Glutamine synthetase (Gambusia affinis), 375 residues
Amino acid sequence: MATVSSSSLLNKAVRQQYMNLPQGGKCQVTYIWVDGTGEGLRNKTRTLDSEPTSIEEIPEWNFDGSSTYQSEGSNSDMYLIPVRMFRDPFTLDPNKLVLCEVLKYNRLPAETNHRHSCNKVMQQVKKHCLWFGMEQEYTLLGTDGHPFSWPQKGFPAPQGPYYCSVGANNAYGRDVVECHYKACLYAGIQIYGTNAEVMPSQWEFQVGPCEGIEMGDHLWVARFLLHRVCEDFGVIATLDPKPMTGNWNGAGCHINVSSQQMREEEGLQYIEQAISKLSKKHKRHIEVYDPHGGKDNMRRLTGLHETSSIHDFSAGVANRGASIRIPRQVGKDKRGYFEDRRPAANCDPYAVTMAIAQTCFLDPTEEESKKEELA
């Protein structure tokens, strides 16, 4: 039996009595931000006098950065700058979720605020009409850190029957998946779909297509919704790229990339050009494809379990053991998109999309001017 949190065992009928109370025209706004780990999410809520109709109506706020690994106690106030607004699927309309950038006391971006620089790059490559889609894999755990529904002593049957599975003997934790899906749709997340993954208790959802900076915004809030849904069920969703050692799949966040030229007739040549550019900067991309400079992906990108080797760049049609996969249909149609399979499940989507945009769509002179602008 999986270990669930004590909070999930509280009487939800009592809670609902209060959730049904009228708000008197007021609006609850939950501010969400990435903390100093580059992986964790934090949130706090305030009351506005009326429902905001645009992000410009959400006021800046602040928080104690010394408690989020983002500042020292002697100078702890950090700024929350609202950047994107969603409907709140937990407290319902008119309440809102608001994703924020974090600025330091001097109003410079915090170290883990990769959105700030990513947005500048996306503006520079706007003419390419970049579309992204990211495939977020995650693993459900009990509060004891053991995979949800795995035997307490021993292991489930080997991988094989679990991918896209159905049935209580194969699919573990579907309630979390379905509730998260509905929460994303309600909130306005560009969620594309979901499926059970190769390892038992491992699932995936896809977000996209999103243009430019929207990719990171929507994925971060989709992650927040996942953690909140799991909180209600008393379980944990881990984005660890290799939660179980041994003959079990890791967890990635594959990214699909497409430009206007790639989507047009004979766009395959532009896909191949982008792959060629990526092949020359493999090491740089590995360094930004997880929050620890590639150390997390060292455990995952072994060349086994549908991964490429972290040490070598590779590409191929329909090859899930390559760094870059060209889908078979894309190869047939000679246009479409490519899939970079290297990003880890716990990657920062802003860092990933920015690196791809820089490598594939900024020429050297544009990139140098961008570096000078950020200096």
